[in-house]
């Protein structure tokens, strides 16, 4: 698991270098959602976090919406096949 400010580079992959990224691909499945919920709780209004997942995290997004209805805007930055990168911005 890594939660870090990404370094500046010119990859043109659509991510913002000032947005923290949480790569959950190495997080054990049993604690993956809890890890994301903890990270999202630290995001202040107007702030964002990039989530990197091994698959399209639709069940996780449904849980986020159920826990905090309307709190996050979700934008897909990358859609597989090896990783999905989503930007979650707190409204």
UniProtKB/TrEMBL annotation:
Superkingdom: Bacteria
InterPro entries assigned to the protein according to its UniProt record, in alphabetical order: DUF2249
Domain DUF2249: 22-90
Name under which the protein is recorded: Uncharacterized protein (DUF2249 family)
């Amino acid at each position: 698991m890594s939660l870090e400010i990404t370094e500046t580079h010119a990859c043109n992959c659509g991510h913002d270098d000032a947005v923290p990224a949480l790569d959950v691909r190495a997080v054990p499945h049993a604690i993956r959602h809890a890890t994301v919920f903890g990270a999202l709780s630290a995001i202040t209004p107007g702030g964002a976090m990039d989530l990197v997942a091994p698959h399209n995290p639709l069940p996780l997004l449904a849980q986020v919406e159920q826990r905090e209805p309307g709190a996050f805007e979700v934008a897909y930055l990358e859609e597989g096949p090896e990783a999905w990168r989503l930007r979650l911005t707190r409204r």
